[in-house]
Structure formats: C-alpha cells, structure tokens
Predict the structure.
Amino acid sequence: MDKKPLLSVRGLEVSYGAIKALLGVDLDVYEGEIVSVIGANGAGKSTLMNAIMGDVPRQAGTVSIGDKVLSSKSFQVVAQGLSLSPEGRKVFTTLTVDENLMMGAFPRDDRSKIEATKEHVFELFPRLKERHGQYAGTLSGGEQQMLAIGRALMSAPKVLLLDEPSLGLAPIVIKDIFRELKKINGEGMTILLVEQNARQALMLSHRAYVIQTGRVIMEGPSSELITNPEVEAAYLGTT
Ligand code: ATP
C-alpha cells in the first residue's frame, strides 16, 4: 500500500517490572480497515491496546494518527482520536445505559452532535435504547458488550479499538456483535481488534498481525492467514 496509515505504532515496548510484555511492536492500520491482532493467552494483546491508549506506560516507541504523534496520557489520547472498548467491558455498573454513554463523550462539548452520536448508537444497538434508563450492572453480558462499544463510539473516534469483544459470550451473541462491527466498519469506521477467538477475528478483518510473547511474528491479509498451516495449528484448532 502506498498511502499513509491512519494509525501507526512504532517500536512499542512495555515492561511490568522485570517482565517484558512488548518488545518493539510495529503495526499499521489504514483508513477504512479492520485489522485484527491474534495471539495466545499472555502474548501481550491487551498490553498493546492499553499502551496505545496510554493506559499503561510505554518504555519506548510512538503511536501516531496521520502525522501527529499521540500523547501518552489516556484522556488526551481519546481527545486525539482513539477510543477503546476494553477487555471485560468495564461498564460503570451503578450508572444507567444513558449515563455510561455520556461518559464516553467526555472530550466533546457540542451537545447536539453528542445527541446525534447517541441516536446512532441506539440505531446500531436497539437493545440499548430499550434499556436506556437501566443500570448497566443489570444488563446481560452481550448487552454490556454493546454498551462498551457504544460508549467507545461516543467520543467519535478516528479509530475504534476493541479488546476481546467476544470474551465470555455465547456463539449467537458473538455473531450479533461481529455483525454490528462489520456494519460500523461499513459506515467508515476504522477498527483495530484484539481477539483470542482467532477464526472470528480473521473472518471479520482485512489484515491481521499474530503476536507471540510480545513480538509480531506474522502479518498479512486475513484471508491468507486463515489458511496458513502454522496459524491453523497454533490458533484455529479450537475456535
Ligand atoms: P489474555 O488474552 O490472557 O488477556 P494478552 O495477550 O492480552 O492475554 P497481556 O494481558 O497483555 O496478554 O499480558 C502480557 C504479559 O504481561 C503476560 O505475561 C502477563 O502476565 C503480563 N502482565 C500483564 N499485565 C500485567 C501487570 N499489571 N503486572 C504484571 N504483569 C502483567
């Protein structure tokens, strides 16, 4: 591809004390793409997402949107155009659906545009509209995942980051969520997706990276990786 990436990660390193979790990760996401990152438990997928967002400190490396190098402070990263639906959803259980969504809009100040985004989230996930006044802690796992994605969309990001949206959900609910992600991408949203459910992720994404113990060991079009015998043996066996 000759054009410049929208999101670009270069030489990203993260350590937790003596544990080196990321050892120089490079990754690009182009406008309009869905890119997935697959890997086993503990490979560093969540660390990658959290380091991109500035939620864990980066020892080295840069994260850029276009030509702009992003801050390492998470509230600034959101204002600069990235938004994360985190692993385990992390909805605010004692707040309502509406209140959770409004929390996601914190960097914005145009009330009418915020309302328009909320209406759009309700179109994508009508169940959230039906339950708009309900406490998030009383939603089902699938509904909480919808809320986490909706909350992330409320900041009107340039790139939407999703950490394990399928975690702990029934296959039919996963199918619904992935169908909505495809729709969101079809409307123009660029997506970076981290998944242990490698088959689903490869089926949804345009390109993918495979990470193992903090390094990218393979990358390419998802349609090629899904038929790669090494990927199949290591990551597709049980999904
Ligand atoms: P999973 O799919 O199980 O969440 P992952 O690929 O997301 O795995 P990470 O959670 O990023 O992997 O973990 C990468 C490595 O960093 C692992 O060895 C993990 O034990 C370690 N690690 C993650 N968070 C911390 C932490 N807060 N303190 C110490 N070590 C950590």
Q: What stands out?
A: The chain has two domains: 1-81+159-168+190-231, 88-156.
